[in-house]
Amino acid sequence: MSQSTTIRMSEFDVEGTESLSRTVYSAVAKAKGVDPLDLPPLAQAIDCDSLDKFAAQSSDNVTFSIQFEYAGCRVTITETEVSIDSKDNS
Which residues are within 8 A (CB) of 79 and not within 5 positions of it... i.e. 6 or more apart? Predict the structure, then answer.
């Protein structure tokens, strides 16, 4: 059964304690219904430092879309949301 999880960027605080890469990691675990420790390192799919720096430096008037595959999911990040589309049964 596939599941989707969407996190609105307004719910994600770049100034807060959780980085965008950590938010993606947690959202994938939630979409797949697994413990985060059961997932492979996110760094196998994307450069986490670059992702976090990009998110921190993005301004309100920038439109963007980043998409990549991670742990059997399609991850899509835009200026307004992070969407996780889980395509497998795990």
Answer: 9, 58, 62, 63, 64
